[in-house]
Amino acid sequence: MAVLLVMLAALAAGAVIALLVRAGRRESRAEAVRLAEDARRQARRSLEAVWTINDRGFEDYIADLCRRDGCNGVQRVGGAGDLGADVIGYLPDGRKIVVQCKRYAKNRSVGSRDIQTFNGTARAEHKADLPLFVASCVFTGPARQFAARQHLALIDIDLLGFWNSGTALSSLLALDIGRSGTNRKLTLDD
What's this model's pTM, rounded to 2 decimal places? Predict the structure, then answer.
């Protein structure tokens, strides 16, 4: 009888422990989701100044981020007749990077037409090994799909927030842009 009570008590304790472990895992997953969302919001909040600078200032800001991450020979070349190149430089591994910068209002999005235009000049005119399109808003689904097919790198406002906060450009370039992002326009209070 005592053995049976000990076994029942052990089974009950095991069941309680299993329930606590499952609850802890659920809570841990929920916390990870919450922390990721907080990080995204914080990164975006840290970019409030982006919407206050002019287009040239935005290009300078992107050039500075490239330099910070080890790019060499970085020059801001944007302006009239730039053929889609606002920043040109070389990645630490020697590949030529050509950057198109769009500082749009946060409630806008960049469509496929802008990406197609950049694609037409980045490699042909500027001999880019890596065409990079950086925007202060989001990209539409068709724009992302086109960029993925053409092997163009995209950095939207969310990724720009992380880049601004210290994430290396090389880490952002490794992302699968065809599947990333929400592809939705931001509301004014986002």
Answer: 0.71
